[in-house]
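Tutorial handout. Part one gives the primary structure; part two gives the three-dimensional structure as tokens.
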Amino acid sequence: MAAQCEDEMVFLETAIIFIVDDYGAKHEARALLDSGSMSNFLSESLARKLVTPRTRVDVSISGIGKATQHVKGSITAFIRSNDLHFATPLEFLILETPSADIPTSAIDVSSWNVPNEPLADPTYHVPGKVDVVIGGDTFWELHTGRKRSLGAGKPWLVENQFGWAVAGNTTQSSHTPRVCHIATNDGPLDALMERFWESETISDEPALSVEEDICEKHFMGNTTRDDTGRYVVSLPHKTNLSIILGASKKIADRRLLSVERRLKEDPKMREAYASFMEEYERLGHMIRLTEPIDESHPHYYLPHHAVVKESSTSTKVRVVFDASCKTSSGYSLNDSLLVGPVVQQDLYTLMLWFRSHTIALWRTMEKMYRQIRHHPADRNFLRNRYRTDPSEPIATFELQTVTYGTASAPFLATRTLKQIAHDHSEQYPRAVTPVLRDFYVDDLLTGTDDLSEAIEMQRQISSMLRSAGFSLKKWASNNPKALDGIPQEDLALQTSHEWNKSQFVSPLGLNWEPAEDMLRFRIELPPAASSLTKRLVLSYIAKIFDVLGPTIVLAKLFMQQLWSLKVNGIALDWDSKLPANLQQEWNKYHSTLQSLRELRIPRFTSLRKATALQLHVFADAS
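Part two.
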């Protein structure tokens, strides 16, 4: 970058570097080394060339005069020097244009006595596009500390990992405009906010990315079925040779000892934890390794911990495996895996379909992920360490099935579900559409307008999924006759003559009372605090999970007020107390939310036996 005025010109460091994507391809780029930036940036045009997955973020970037931009994506990639002696991974926020052209006009350097040294950017004096900004967190690590003067009234040569860069003032006059850069990163407010926005966002990227296409092709080329009919899938590893898993066994042991100390303080939790792991082994979903273990081949040990879900009607304590735990090399198993595309309907669309059927059917699948087996070659990466009692030696186990906590597990599980429908489309024609369209992970929300068709549909769905080892549990319907033939133990609710209004199931974050065919909201907010801040209110809003949307409209309007609120012309700080009028307004809304639990909405959105329907659509231009 060059900042210019009539009296002088200031050169900031630029360098020609290489960005290496996940498949080893090198992309040349011009980088600005900017100590005034709190983040690293990458241009949208360069990001599109990299075969590297993006991560969704919501970050506000502030510049001169507090002008802000919102960044929605980031990637992590290696930067390398031209001679390959230096390489390091960096996370980049993606901006359309991270910098103006640098310099803004050509500079005559013909009279400068520049030493014959390798320059970081031989075109430092020629206006050119900047695709990369390397910020202050890495800026100082790049420098060797060596510098040379080019003479009085001229800039310096400063050595960095990419060569010698031109930096500093020159008295050469220029009438071109001054260009200044500064960027500060406000960061995400709260992890819960991501779920809040994603619950109502309609994807605008229906086509598969390069990585997603690779993952889909990997699934098609490596998925088989065993002699029992179960599907056998393979972990979709990235081909990035720089991602090497280091040692992880000692890390897994330390995590186990930490879990044991916590469980010692809670006997009920310890018993539930042991019961979960005992069942895992008894069902053959993990096996104990008794033979000597060969550690010379690539492998990974998954730490694990307990997750408590009090609202669960089945297993309140679950053991979750952590495939994001870093090994001694700085990489985790999840770093080496492709995530894969989303292959199911979004929540809102699925709920609209569910409300359109006269006869509704709901069911959930038992241990969906664990009904899909992993290829034997994957199991070195699915080891874990465990013992029932701290007095016993720690044993090594190997997970045999798709494991919750691995980056590719959601794709492998949901994609397998769709594959079942494709493979059995002729044998179970009434089950194909519901399995392809009406699942959200392991919840099925489907239906029809004819009783006999509903009965046949649920029978074919059960048979189709059972052929691949999936067990369907907890069926429910607003018409009990549609559940004909389903064993009593597989029903979510009591038989029809025992039904009452209080019985409900919970599809997609709502409560559904099949007997009355009514939907009710699930509000799980803690009482409002006596002193409210912007940060606290936004954390409350993020906990409002509503597929249908109406409960968060007022919350969004209140959020707009918080965003525009200023005190003495300055935006309100995240942790400053809200004005009294806003505290009162939020408390009123917060208390009103609790009353929504009593609101009951008909699930069926149409009229039974209607002969004609009209759909009126309204758009809000604001």
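Part three, for discussion. Residues 15 and 121 are 4 Å apart (CA to CA). The first helix runs from residue 44 to 49.
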